[in-house]
């Protein structure tokens, strides 16, 4: 027996995977079980997708066709409070449509922010039992070393620890009052209309704005303890908002990748030697350690572009060329990590750099502690400290204009980077194969001519024969120079482009969080103008949006600053290498030319 439902209200789809509904429309359901407040089905126009469960009423009647198989069966179910039973059907003019589903409870485990990070899998540095055991040593104090003291979980008495909250007292009545929580009272509710209006929630609960915790923070639902060491300060610089500089800057080299084994040679891996300049103590890390760190940082910092790691590779991991290329990619990654004022000071990153390679217990303690970090999601935004006082507030229209301009910039830069990468790769391929082959063909032709001339045994032609033979050798050597040159100039350019393509892939999500906050501000202002929301509540939403805007602009400014530094340095290196290359070619040709002086 097929399941069907009748639409109680109109619903317009706004995101991929959703379908629109018309009031009174009958739909076929794929399953009666809702997916976090959403059902999947097919509307009368044959469109298939998701729609709010509270917008329809299930009707139990046989249908001519069996229900189609559910495509969203792999989406996790549960985690939200149950919906109140649907109200009896009334015309839309008499009853407003309900909120699609109530807000998630505090601590709901959304998937990791951004959706792009996948933990290391397959044969590329597989996770070992000694890394993922169920040891509880991480619960011991001081997991990140003496530089990162442990703090009490509550009580507010710990030094340098402050409880921050954006929660406000609820202005709605209790559940069961005829409307879902978070939705305005129906019209005609008396004088409580001004205090009952709330800013609506995004219907797409899998959007970046929701998963990052940005929505919960802007709507005033974040609450947590912030340590002094967790504060991320934004200051006003000459170019606008900037992250406060790291007072103790440092660099970290990545050297001597070596193949090591364990389990009596049954398991092989590559270990990289890291030497941070602020400690001078070397540690060894495998790719899986980098991969774990990237995952933690990408989840923790939704408005910061965490650089992408070099790509994984299932085969050929122990080949010399691959190891060398990965080391160079990791060196660029490490440079960007150390150069970022926020990422460089993150506890998890410092633990990664400083924990001794031989101290397995200390490593596990720090790893578990980082994974239990409470300042993630909505609480992360509590750690951001922005300028206050006269002249420190942001004009939201100007912010929106700047963000739109940066969005257009990143799109154009991404297209240009792809084009340059393709061009450089094709040119390098021609140098390694085509150019080398062509120059050596010329050299071979000169050599054949020289051999033909040698058939003349007269003494006065011997010098000419030797000069032509030397010219052949010169062209053969020039072919080798062409084949070796890409690794000196074009490969470093492509390595840099790969790193920045990762950054450019991060910014759409960062911009989405900021845009989502701006949308909530505009909605709250409209409620104030209509007399449905108190001004104080709307100002709180704008203040929290301001925090996200400050952080977004600070990250944009850091990106531009580091971009100018990197591309200036890389272009200088490229041109210097090109000059040296052509000087070598010229030298070979001049040497061949001088051979004819004595003929």
Q: Tell me the CATH superfamily of the domain at 394-593.
A: Arfaptin homology (AH) domain/BAR domain
The helix tally amounts to 12
Whole-number radius of gyration?
32 Å
Structural class, please? alpha+beta
Count of DSSP strands:
13
CATH class descriptor of the domain at 394-593? Mainly Alpha
Might you state the CATH topology name of the domain at 394-593? Substrate Binding Domain Of Dnak, Chain:A, Domain 2
Strand content: 5-15%
Strand order of the largest sheet: 4-3-2-1-5
* CATH architectural name of the domain at 394-593: Up-down Bundle
Residue windows where pLDDT falls under 50 for at least 5 positions? 63-95, 101-159, 169-195
Distance between the termini: 100 Å
Overall 3D form = elongated
Mean pLDDT: 79
Describe the largest sheet.
5 strands, antiparallel
Approximate helicity band: 40-55%
Biased composition (Acidic residues): 123-133
Region (Disordered): 85-197
Biased composition (Pro residues): 85-112
GO molecular function: phosphatidylinositol binding
Structural summary, described in words:
GO terms for molecular function: phosphatidylinositol binding. Residues 123-133 have a biased composition (Acidic residues). It is found in: Cytoplasmic vesicle membrane. Among the domains are: 2-57, SH3 Domains (SH3 type barrels, Roll); 250-383, PX Domain; 394-593, Up-down Bundle (Substrate Binding Domain Of Dnak, Chain:A, Domain 2). Helix content is 42%, strand content 12%. It contains twelve helices and 13 strands. Strands 4-3-2-1-5 form a five-stranded antiparallel β-sheet, with no helix packed on it. Strands 9-8-13 form a three-stranded mixed β-sheet. The radius of gyration is 32 Å and the shape is elongated. Mean pLDDT is 79; it is low at 63-95, 101-159 and 169-195.
């Amino acid at each position: 027996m097929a399941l069907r439902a009748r639409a109680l209200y109109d619903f317009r789809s706004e995101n991929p995977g959703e379908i629109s509904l018309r009031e009174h429309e009958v739909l076929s359901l794929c399953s009666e079980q809702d997916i976090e407040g959403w059902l999947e089905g097919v509307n009368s126009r044959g469109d298939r997708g998701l729609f709010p469960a509270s917008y329809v009423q299930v009707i139990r009647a046989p249908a001519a066709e069996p229900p189609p198989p559910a495509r969203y069966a792999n989406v996790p179910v549960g985690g939200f409070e149950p919906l109140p039973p649907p109200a009896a059907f009334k015309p839309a003019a008499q009853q407003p449509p309900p909120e699609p589903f109530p807000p998630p409870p505090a601590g709901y485990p959304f998937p990791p922010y951004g959706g792009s990070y996948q933990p290391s899998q397959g044969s590329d540095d597989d996770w070992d039992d000694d890394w993922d055991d169920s040891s509880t040593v991480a619960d011991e104090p001081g997991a990140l070393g003496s530089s990162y003291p442990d703090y009490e979980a509550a009580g507010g008495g710990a030094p340098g620890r402050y409880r921050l909250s954006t929660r406000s007292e609820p202005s709605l009545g209790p559940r069961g009052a005829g409307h879902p929580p978070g939705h305005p009272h129906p019209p005609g509710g008396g004088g409580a209309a001004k205090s009952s209006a709330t800013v609506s929630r995004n219907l797409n609960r899998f959007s970046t704005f929701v998963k990052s915790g940005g929505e919960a923070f802007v709507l005033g639902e974040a609450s947590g303890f912030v340590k002094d060491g967790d504060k991320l300060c934004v200051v006003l610089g000459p170019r606008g908002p900037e992250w406060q500089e790291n007072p103790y800057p440092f660099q970290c080299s990545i050297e001597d990748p070596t193949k090591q084994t364990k389990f009596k040679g049954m398991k092989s891996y590559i270990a990289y030697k890291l030497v941070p300049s602020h400690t001078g103590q070397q540690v060894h890390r495998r790719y899986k350690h980098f991969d774990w760190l990237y995952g933690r940082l990408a989840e923790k910092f939704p408005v910061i572009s965490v650089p992408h790691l070099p790509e994984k590779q299932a085969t050929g991991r122990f080949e010399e060329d691959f190891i060398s290329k990965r080391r160079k990619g990791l060196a660029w990654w490490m440079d960007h990590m150390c150069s970022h004022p926020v990422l460089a000071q993150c506890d998890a990153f410092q633990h990664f750099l400083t924990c001794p390679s031989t101290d397995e217990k200390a490593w596990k303690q720090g790893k578990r502690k980082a994974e239990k970090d409470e300042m993630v999601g909505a609480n992360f935004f509590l750690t951001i400290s922005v300028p206050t006082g006269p002249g420190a507030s942001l004009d939201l229209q100007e912010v929106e204009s700047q963000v739109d301009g940066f969005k257009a910039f990143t799109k154009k830069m991404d297209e240009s980077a792809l084009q340059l990468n393709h061009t450089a790769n094709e040119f390098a391929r021609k140098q390694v194969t085509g150019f080398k082959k062509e120059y050596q063909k010329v050299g071979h032709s000169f050599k054949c001519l020289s051999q033909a001339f040698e058939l003349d045994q007269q003494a006065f032609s011997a010098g000419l024969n030797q000069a032509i033979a030397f010219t052949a050798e010169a062209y053969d050597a020039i072919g080798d120079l062409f084949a070796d040159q890409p690794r000196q100039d074009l490969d470093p350019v492509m390595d840099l482009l790969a790193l920045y393509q990762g950054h450019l892939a991060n910014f759409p999500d960062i911009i989405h969080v900021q845009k989502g906050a701006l949308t909530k501000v505009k909605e709250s202002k409209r409620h104030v103008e209509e007399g449905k929301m108190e001004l104080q509540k709307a100002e709180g939403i704008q203040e929290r949006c301001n925090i996200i805007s400050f952080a977004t602009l600070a990250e944009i400014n850091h990106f531009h600053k580091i971009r100018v530094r990197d591309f200036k340095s890389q272009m200088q290196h490229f041109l210097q290498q090109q000059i040296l290359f052509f000087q070598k070619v010229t030298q070979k040709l001049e040497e061949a030319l001088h051979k004819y002086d004595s003929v």
